[in-house]
Amino acid sequence: MKTTAHRATTPVMWKRTVVGTAAVAAVVLTLAGCSSTGGKKATQTDATAKSYTIAMVTHGPPGDTFWDLIRKGAQAAADKDNVKLQYSSQNSGPAQATLVQSAIDSKVDGLAVTMSFADAMTPAITQAVKAGIPTTVFNAGINNWKATGALSYFGQDEKVSGVAAGKRLASEGAKNVICVVQEQGSVALEDRCAGVKEGLTTGSVENLNVTGTDLPSVESSITAKLQQDPSVDAIITLGAPIALTAVKSLSAANSKAKVATFDTNSELVGAIQNGSVEWAVDQQPYLQGYLAVDALWLDLSNKNVIGGGQSTLTGPSFIDKSNIAAVAEYAKRGTR
Q: Which of 38, 65, 199, 293 has the fewest C-beta atoms under 10 angstroms from its C-beta?
């Protein structure tokens, strides 16, 4: 009797087991679909996601270490977002505006641009926005970007950064400072020097205009100024390559002036470590490039806007011997 009863109930139990297993499998599959680690990946990596083309137009010279960092950040965002990045640059405002017009004519999906030459760039950016091309501004143009209708701005306030640098120079006892401008007519660079003058309440600041694309001539110009005026006790440069060149000028002129700078690169990290450059004002160029592209993708794919109509600041902060070790690792891999 016990055997018979057992045989009678076995098919029912088997059926329940199959149903139970199927239910468990369904739950597992559902959970897998919801899992952040085992389910469907982010939209930008989906093979069916739309691929956008974004043009980045800057005023940075090709091969410049600062602009290399911006481009790397932009490319990192483009790779993440399945974006085709078209990068171009020109050192004059009209030429840069022509690049923007080319981007408009080619009907790109988005535009990321600098506004160092605001007079030339404002009409070009305004035209892009009117053409329905969402646009972000980065690095230069904090006082002008809103008037163009651009979505967002990513960078530092150059005047504020300059004031901070001037105050630091004052706290370190600087009295006679040279501010080396490597690109005449650049609003951003002139704002930096103006800020340094405002912040340095203990002495005077004189602008020295040089041609930043010709480093031997930069070295000669700084050396001549130091020889002409031995009382110069500090040099503030507006780019890492210029700072490294100024260090050479100190030796040539037998000057004891100290060198500080805006912006960094991997070689400058070593100069801060060995003490030949005192400190650098960092505006995080990699981050600027990254955010300028990523913000466009967010707008194009999900109508998100970063900044709430206000500038998103990426600086300033100071890099010196107290924190250089934390930055050095990233500088070696080319992202700081």
A: 38
Question: Closest Cα to residue 52, out of 295, 331, 328?
Answer: 295
Q: Which fold has domain 50-156+285-305?
A: Rossmann fold (3.40.50)
Q: Give residue-wise pLDDT tens across range 129-180.
A: 999 999 999 999 999 999 999 999 999 999 999 999 999 999 999 999 999 9
Sheet holding 110-113: strands in order across?
83-89, 52-58, 110-113, 135-138, 152-155, 312-313
181: which strand partners?
209
Asked, colleague to colleague, whether 50-156+285-305 and 158-282 share their fold, the answer is yes
* Edge-to-edge strand list for the sheet holding 280-282: 204-209, 176-181, 234-237, 258-262, 280-282, 317-319
Q: Count how many Cα atoms sit within 13 Å of the Cα of residue 215 in the half-sphere of its side chain.
A: 12
Contact status, residue 317 vs residue 160, Cβ threshold 8 Å = no
* Sequence spans of domains, the chain: 1-40, 50-156+285-305, 158-282
Q: Which CATH superfamily does the domain covering 158-282 fall into?
A: Response regulator (3.40.50.2300)
pTM assigned to the model: 0.80
Looking at the chain, how many residues does it have? 336
